[in-house]
Design brief:
The protein has helices at residues 35-50, 76-90, 104-108, 124-131, 150-159, 185-190, 223-232, 262-276, and strands spanning 8-10, 13-15, 22-26, 54-57, 93-97, 113-116, 136-140, 165-169, 172-173, 179-180, 196-199, 205-210, 215-218, 237-243, 257-258. By secondary structure, the protein is α/β, with parallel strands linked by helices. A hairpin with a 2-residue loop joins strand 1 and strand 2 (13-15). The two termini are 17 Å apart.
């Protein structure tokens, strides 16, 4: 089981086929003010110092919040304006979620990598819409799906002419309110020919575990453990949600990594990657 995934190009970043370990990182959701831009700027500094290829992520709309009263984000048009500023000021490639077919084309005018959320991984019409944009696509494996089920997702995207496909492992439902990771999923999904990203932050979620079931809880202290295991298992890139003060984040704070902890974690992960390369 030593499949070398086909490389996928996202802006200046190449993922897979023996390329350096890449990072997809940013806040869970765009928050009011200049926080998104400040996080992007700090990520550029960190990854530039360590030589880590970076794609910036953020959501303009968290359409699947546990509670209808939770903050969702600035919306599509305001969100795209933020991405334009991030790209203009940092030169980074950017990625965000696509929740509906009608969003795919306008998002693709600005965003370099279109992400299909885990809950929507099997939605054929959505997969067709994102593939039709000519952008690379990152599909998060549904928490309800086996790793080998993702071959059908990859086949759909190929049939629809997607420019490139990434698959992301982000945990599997284990009973109520808990996710677990089977690291065998990384090489198993790589057998599809798609590079595999490991989402170390959503993997530590405790769905519905906060505020009496109104919010998602998490075990952020386990992020480094899972990230190290995933790199050792051969993932092609990492996905991390980061925030300067996760306890004050407007979404997914309990499973976000403190931004000031990222440099040390990346140094460890690069050593793991070097060790498995022999």
């Amino acid at each position: 089981m030593n499949v070398v995934p086909n490389p996928v190009t996202v802006g200046p970043v190449q993922i897979g086929n023996g390329q350096p370990l890449a990072l997809i990182a940013g806040p869970c959701v765009m928050e009011p003010g200049d926080l998104t831009l400040r996080i992007a700027g700090r990520l550029v500094e960190i990854c530039g110092e360590l030589g880590v290829p970076l794609i910036f992520k953020a959501s303009f709309d968290k359409a699947n919040r546990t509670s209808g009263s939770s903050y969702r984000g600035p919306g599509l048009q305001a969100g795209l304006d933020v991405f334009r500023k991030v790209k203009a000021e940092t030169g980074l490639a950017v990625t965000t979620d696509v929740h509906e077919t009608i969003q795919a084309a306008p998002i693709a005018e600005v965003v370099d990598l279109l992400q299909v959320p885990a809950f929507l991984a099997r939605q054929t019409d959505l997969l067709e819409a994102v593939a039709a944009t000519g952008r690379a696509v990152n599909v998060k494996k549904g928490q309800f799906m086996a790793p080998w089920d993702m071959k059908n997702v990859v086949a759909k995207l190929q049939d629809f002419g997607a420019a490139g496909t990434l698959l992301t492992e982000r945990g599997t439902t284990f009973g109520y309110g808990r996710l677990v990771n089977d690291m065998r999923a990384i090489p198993q999904m790589q057998e599809t020919g798609a590079p595999v990203v490991f989402d170390a932050t959503h993997s530590v979620q405790l769905p519905g575990g906060g505020e009496g079931g109104k919010t998602t809880a998490g075990q952020r202290e386990m992020i480094p453990t899972l990230a190290k295991a995933a790199v050792a298992a051969g993932c092609d890139a990492l996905f991390l949600e980061v925030h300067p003060d996760p306890d004050k984040a407007l979404s997914d704070g309990p499973n976000s990594l403190r931004l000031d902890e990222l440099p040390d974690l990346l140094r460890v992960l690069l050593r793991v990657r070097e060790a498995i390369a022999g």
